[in-house]
């Protein structure tokens, strides 16, 4: 039961990512919502500027959402194979591998949806986010629990 609990955030986030891969979250649909938000906050902007902002928001979402997946997966693997250490390259590698598989399957899935486009560039962006989050995890652990040196 405990191992299921440590995997729950990862499994839920995989479900969220699967939802993001559908037609509902295509650029056509997210554009209308984003345009209303921008208009309410900042007033009207040109179509060209909106396309730039929309692109940036969508790509940032890739970076962050797959970064979060890798972080959730790291802690799930850590809970599955505990160790005396607070960080293990094994947990990081497994989290990155899981993220790569999920990102690749996401793009493969999108290739079958007419309103979506599959791109290996998005997988690269997803993995960049995943790697960044892994670096944040190791930095946070090292800052929070500095190694003690014997003198």
Description:
This protein has 151 residues and is mainly α. It has one domain. The protein is 77% helix and 0% strand. α1 (2-20) runs antiparallel to α3 (47-80), α3 (47-80) packs across α4 and α4 runs antiparallel to α5. The longest helix is centred in the middle third of the chain and has 34 residues, at 47-80. 21% of the residues are buried.
Low-pLDDT runs of 5+ residues are none
Share of helix, binned: over 70%
What order do the SSEs take from the amino end to the carboxyl end, as H and E?
HHHHH
The backbone outline, from C-alpha atoms, is elongated
Question: What's the average pLDDT?
Answer: 93
Strands, count: 0
N-to-C CA distance = 43 Å
In terms of DSSP E residues, the strand content is: under 5%
Domain module count:
1
Structural class: mainly alpha
Instruction: Enumerate how many helices there are, as a single number.
Output: 5
Biggest beta-sheet profile: none
Spatial extent as radius of gyration: 19 Å
List keywords for this structure.
151 residues; single chain; mainly alpha; 0% strand; 77% helix
Concise summary:
Helices cover 77% and strands 0% of the residues. The protein is mainly α.
How is this fold's topology laid out?
Blueprint: H1 2-20, H2 27-42, H3 47-80, H4 89-110, H5 120-144
């Amino acid at each position: 039961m405990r191992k299921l609990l440590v995997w729950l955030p990862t499994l839920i986030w995989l479900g969220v990512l699967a939802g993001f891969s559908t037609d509902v979250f295509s650029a056509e649909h997210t554009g209308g919502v984003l345009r209303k938000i921008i208009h309410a906050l900042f007033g009207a902007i040109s179509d060209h500027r909106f396309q730039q902002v929309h692109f940036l928001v969508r790509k940032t979402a890739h970076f962050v959402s797959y970064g979060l997946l890798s972080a959730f997966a790291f802690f799930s693997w850590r809970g599955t194979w505990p160790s005396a250490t607070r960080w293990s390259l094994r947990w990081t590698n497994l989290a990155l591998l899981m993220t790569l598989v999920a990102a690749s399957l996401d793009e493969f899935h999108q290739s079958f949806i007419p309103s979506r486009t599959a791109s290996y560039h998005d997988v690269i962006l997803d993995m960049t986010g995943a790697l960044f989050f892994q670096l944040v995890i190791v930095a946070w652990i090292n800052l929070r629990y500095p190694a003690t040196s014997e003198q």
